[in-house]
Each structure stands twice: as structure tokens, then as C-alpha cells.
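Sequence and structure are no longer studied apart. To make this concrete, we show below a single chain and its fold as C-alpha cells.
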Amino acid sequence: MSWRLGVDIGGTFTDFALMKEDGSVFVDKALSTPQDRSLAVMEGLGSLAEREGCSLRELLAQIDSIVHGTTVADNTLIEMSGARTGLLTTQGFRDELELRRGFKEDIWDVRLPPPPVIVPRRRRLTVPERILFDGRIHLPLDEPAARHAIARLEDQGVESVAVATLFSFVNPVHELRLGELLAELLPGVPVSLSHQVMPKAPEFERTSTTVLNAYIGPRVTGYLDRLGERLQAAGYAGELLVMQSSGGVMTREYIRRAPVRVLASGPAGGVIGSARAGLAKDEPQLLCVDMGGTSYDVSLVRDGRAPAEPGWNWHHRYVIGLPMVSVETLGAGGGSLCHVHEGRLEVGPGSAGADPGPVCYGRGGTRPTITDANLVLGLLSPESPFAGGRFRLSRDGVDEAFRTHVANPMGCSVEEAAFDCWRVVNANMCQAVRRLTAERGTDPRTLTLLAYGGNGPLFAATQARELGIGRVVIPRSSPAFSALGALVALPGLDEERSYLVAAGKAEPVRLRALWRDLHSEALRHLAVAGFGPDACQVRFQLNLRYPGQNWSLAIDAHEGSGEIDWTFTENDLLPAMVERFHQSHEREYGHRRMGEEPEITGARLISTAAVAQPAFSGGFEANPREAKATGRRRVQLGRGFEEADVFVGSDLQPGDRAEGPALVEESFTTIVLPPGWQLRVDDAGDLQLAAEVS
């Protein structure tokens, strides 16, 4: 058999999506284990094996590949618990990290502090050396000074070192020598060389990305090694593939070179899955919202694509110059803590997480959360199975928690306090959507909202109503949709090589050599993942810009697979690329500068390999019928407490319809249908919600 498994670790739950040979998908969850997140993966695999009626070893023998999205890198930045990092850079550039291009997230907040400095000034040391923009050595590397700087880093107990020298992406000779000296003088200490992590300009972005790589690298590689060893010991013989922030997946060996590539990799899987699901349902313009136990992630899919934004990616207040699927994250989830601060009701960003979790979990939590509020408001029930039937929620202690932390300070009842917390978290999430869509120049009313995560369906229709969105899609697999998205993502690489030259002076032979090098490296890494040349699709691109611009546009030059016909690099390519650049610039920015010759900044190669993927579909061919409710419940949805129909999700079949107010209880989530909304089950078994037209 050939099965595939997607795994996504969240702050509260670890999600699993198991796809069998016939294409069927089963989703499951396990409580995350913050002390060692690989333990939750193994516990969840044990539960899957029990469900399949086999041993863990027998289950793993049937799985061909495991694709893993991880939050280890993000948690490291959030907790500021990375390696003690040192930086070696060119003399005169010691403070570049703190200058940050003068960037400030809120220019009107004079009290906004800068982000914590990952590498304090005492561990940022410079070395006399200088390479010019064309790769010529202006000042040779001062090796005695370099040895002295490394000795100072050793005295400070560094656990990881970043090296970022000027124009190393054009000529890496000095960085390579510094890497050799570090290996000699600090054996066993990981070293991140900027020309390997991010081989392109600009300087600040490259330095920041390299420092982040050095800071989170030991935590990421250590976690992946532990998980890989546990899987191997349990009987797994396949490759552990890791989700990247660019939307592709790759091997542990590849990630080891640049662990920074896994930042925000979990949310990226959900966006990739959303794009595929949206196309299947003829909804190419999507607002994707993922609300889990700890965070709320929002992103856009345009024309059925989830493009990876290059260059200027600010994540946890630090810039990353590598391609990333754009996801905005807010500290709002089912575990978000509710409290009153200086007379103001606040929800999040702190979270109860998986341990102890919300009060209603009965695991020792004493502070109220959004999940507790949903229980008070009737959106969740202590009588219904929770988390796939693993346990039931309890009202014990919930009222007292709200009374102590919210109701008494605000002078209101417990139910009023819970509803106010529900309103605040809704407002916070809607504001995040408005900010994202405004920045992208998009009217949210033109989008369809696709909701997933354990808590996304609870709030989806309410948010859509606030934002003026008239349609919501909730996949049946929504509670573990990011894990499912990891199975949709294709194994692949997105790599660049720098080449700074005016387009009219570019040498086709040089471009061919750069692309050949990228192509050979891509085939090597994909071969490790088990894919031969004929299975690999490659897209050759050139990065071009007008003189004086900071950012380049990636312009397609050629696509192919298997044996590449390199004649596409001959002399007529460059004039065609320049014209395509003018056209692309006009589409993107509304103008072209025909009187100026564009500059080439580098060659780029995007390579992917085809794999078996979950199937998505849509449509409403099934005969419509009114769904049968299994009961009624007193709920609060903004009009005071009222009775709402309750449906069991597993009972709903394609063609079933219902009207709000209503609740649909699934194994790992609850779908809330507000008054004035209708629900239909499409032919794929997914739920589609629509506002009634007045």
C-alpha cells in the first residue's frame, strides 16, 4: 500500500490527515505536548494505528511519506528561546540589525519599543575585509583579526554563529574562509553563511535572515532529528518531508541548510489547501481564516493561487528575505485568555495552550478563555463529545473564573461577561481582516470566506456578516485542514543565484551556467526525496528591476521537465524577457519606463515534483432536502439567548439544507449558523453557508 500522512502542530492540538491509496482522507487530533512536540506526533500515530486495527509499526510500514508542518521555529521566536547567537560581518556594518532600515511597525506610536535584539552588540563583531559589487576583492580578509573575533565569541559562549559580509552573494570567498576558521576554532558550533541562506541583495534583509537562521536553527534541526529518530525506531522507513514557508515541502537534509525556511510553515499548508479547494468549488478569490487554540491566521488567495511573497516579509517583527506565503497572525484562539486590564476588557494574545488549557477542559486551568465563553453561550455543550470524543467539556469552575476575572471587575453577570469576550475576539479578528485586505487593495465583499481550524467554523459566519461577505465555505476536514494542506503541497525548491548586470550587457552563457547549477542542485535534492528527473517540473525565471528600484519582479523564461532543451537561453531570450518585464511592471504598478534599460538581479529556478494529492470537488447535483435536527439548544448569537436547532455533522448528506439559528456538531469542531443564514451540503460533503438576500 502507499499511504501519505500530513501532520501540523499547533499550540493546543496536533493535527493529522491520513490519505489512503484510494484517495480517502481521515483526520484526527491529539493534544500538543509543549515540552517535546514530537511526543504528540507519536501519540497521534498510535491513535491512528488503533483506529486502523493494527500496530504502530504496521501502520508506519504502509505510509509512503510523512509531510510535516511545524511551529517550532515560530515558537522559538515568540518565546525568544533560540541559540546564543554571534554575528561576524564586514567592518563598519556592526549595527545594521538595529537600524532596521528605519522601519517601525506603527510610526504614530512613540512608545512602541523595538523588538528584542537577537544578537546584542557585544556579540556582533566585525572583520576587516571588503568585496565590491562586481565580486572584485577590494580589501583581503584579515585572518588574524578574524581569529581574534572568533575567540571573543567563544569567550561569550555562543551556540550558533551567523556570517554576513558585504556582496558575498557575488563572491563568497571571504565567507567561506570565515566558515573554515569557525569550524577550526569552534568545532561543533553551527554556522550560517549568508550566501548559502539568502544569496542575494539587499544587505539588511540578508543579514537579518541569516541571523534568524542561526538563532532558530539548532531548535528546528534538533526537533526534526528527534522526530526522525522516533519515527525510524517505530518502523518508518520513508523520508520525513517538511513544509516550507514558501508553500512547498522538502527533505530534512535540505531544511538543515536553512531552517529559517520553516517559519510560518504550518499556516502555509492551510493556504495551499484552500487554493485547491476554492478552485474545485469555482471560488478562486478567497479570504482564508484559520482559528485554532492559540492563534488566528488570515490570508488571501487570488485567482486560485497562494503566491509566495519574496523579500520584504516581516514575521514576529523580524524581516525574512526568502519567499513566504503571506499569512497575518493574531493572538486569538480558543485558548485566548480573557481578563480586565485597567478597566479595559482584553482577550489574548496570551493563551492557556494545551497545558493546562481552558477551564472547561478540567486540567487545572483557572483563567477564562474563549472556549469557556463558547460553553457559557451555548455554542459548545458539556453533553456533546469533544476533540473526537476523547473527553467532554465541563462547566465546573467556568462561572467562577469569569466572575473573578471579568464579571466582577466589569460589574456584569457571567453570561454578559462571556458574551462581551466573544464580541471582543470577533472584533479583533475582523480588524485583522480589514487591515490585510486594505493593504492589498482588496474589498472583502468580493471574496468568499473559507474557514478552518478547530475554532474557525465557530466564528466564520459571524465574521462574514461583519465584513459584508455573503458566502462561507467550511470543508469537512476543516479541523485539520493545515495538515491536509501539507498533502496538497508539492515537494519542491525555490532557489536563486545573484547576477547584477544591465539587461543589455547580460551574457547568455553566464545565465545558462547559473540555471544549470540551480537545476543540478534541485534534481539532487529531489532525488533524495525519491523523485527522478522525469517527475520534476521546473520553471526558469529572471529577476529584473528598473535602475534605482529596491525590489525585482520574477519573469518567467521557460518551463520544462526531464531533459532540458537549453537552447531557450540563446540570444533572442533577453529582448523577449525585457518586454515581458515592461508588461509585468505595468500590470503590477500601473506604469512602465520604456526609456530605461532594466537590470537583471539574478536567476531563479522553481522546481516541483508531482505526488498523489487529496481530491477536492464541489457542485450541488444532489437532490435538496431539509436536514433533520437532533435537538435544540439555548444559544446567544447577538439577539439575546434563543433556541437553535442542533445537527450532527456525520448525519448530514449532500443536498441537506438548514436555516439559522443552528449549530452543526462535528467530531472536532462546531459550525455556527447565525439567524438569517442558510446552510447547504455540497456534493463533496462540505458545508457552504450563505446570507439570505433581503
Notes: The mean pLDDT is 90. Residues 634-691 form one domain. The chain has 17 helices and 37 strands. Residues 203-234 form the longest helix (32 residues).
